[in-house]
Amino acid sequence: SFSGMVALRFVRRWLHETTELGGMPTNLSDVQDKVLVIGAGDSGRHVAREVRLRTSLNMTLVGFVDDDPSKLHTEIEGAPVLGTIDDLPAIHRKHRFSQALLAISDLPLQRKRQIVNVCGDLGVKVRVLPGTPELISGRAQVAPVRDVAIEDLLGRPVADLTRDDPLLQPVYGGRRVLVTGAGGSIGSELCRQLANLQPEVIILVDKDENNLFMLRQELAWRFPGQAVSAHILDIRNKDKLSRVFALTRPEVVLHAAAYKHVPLMEENPYEAIENNVGGSRNAALLCLDYQVDRFVMLSTDKAVNPTSVMGATKRIAELIIRQLAEKSTSTRFASVRFGNVLGSRGSVIPTFRRQIEMGGPVTVTHPLVTRYFMTIPEASQLVLKAGTLANKGEVFVLDMGQPIRIMDLARDMIRLSGFREDDIPIVITGLRPGEKLYEELLVDRDRVVPTTIQKVFVSRPELRDFDAFQKQVDDLLARARDASLAQIRAMLEAMDIGLRPPDTPV
Questions:
Q1: pTM of this prediction?
Q2: In this structure, which topology does domain 2-148 adopt according to CATH?
């Protein structure tokens, strides 16, 4: 089969690279490395064949495990199917394998977590053979067989985008698309996915020259035919941003620029207000001035009943977008709200990874704290899809799945790093200023309904008096510069955006 052929190519490359890099012994006098394959399908069969034929690898395939009862006690390429996943401890006691290769692409999440936990307790390293969709899409070209990553245990799907996507192509293909915050984690992934849709030009806007430089280089290398223009500027400067609009005449604007770190914005509240409120309003107003077809702002679950300055600024920005949409006859507006993205800079997973590499401790703010997670590619894809529905300032809410307990995340990452749970200490540090124990995605659950797009829901926030609210925004921007945090919080509370006191630290 095609999937088998692709799997064979990657298995061979894995075996070659593992040997070359010293991961497997090649001297026949060395102790043989015992491997168990999880999954007795096509991919597992090809692993077995390569190990059997390439004796110079000095690897021993002890056998397979598979939950399909029809395969139990059969032989594949001379190796027995020894049992099911539940039998791993007993099989290890008998065969003492040191590696387990996961060769099932559609294994349920709970089963995957079970394998990692059991093998971690046994001191067995788990590695993953990419699934056929990853191989076909090209996402598995660099590391064909890899260690299990924390992302594998969080159950988020692989985003798949094609150039002829019937939903996205009419909105973004062949259009002039401007992305603010283009150098950030989400902004840069939006640009990659846009390039796949072949817009007329991607207009990159960011104030970080290094991020912008690296992104433009990457796009030029990966999408050599794609027109790209790059502009270094701060969205708080409306005049400079206006000049970019006048020069490039965007038809779609994706507004990803924002300050996002909650504790840091509690220490620098005016910066959060000026950037997240003032900068967002600048971009939205220019869309009206230049008759941009569509404006989509990225928002956050922290905007719902906010306890932080950062969350409050994003809630205000959502309301601004909603009001401007009501006034607009040319531009369709929307906001898209979602939770944390896996692996973004400064977020919990890179922080935990760095702490584990340093030998600990791993710091968790509260034993009960939970967060929603989504991969950067999945969030970006759903933002693009939600943007196709933009009209009157709707707030679209992405289905983030189930919240993840951060303490469980820390333990999983310690285990995946090759340590037992007790090897790396976990320290409870207390909630930081502005933080919540848990995030919410909806202000009023009764007002949220499904859309025609899977995993995208829509909420229509309340209408407010335009002039009165805009005056409140003007006063906030004018007075917050020299105000204390307490004074700024009082101003935000007066705007009736649901601001609450922060959750009590431990």
A1: 0.78
A2: Rossmann fold (3.40.50)
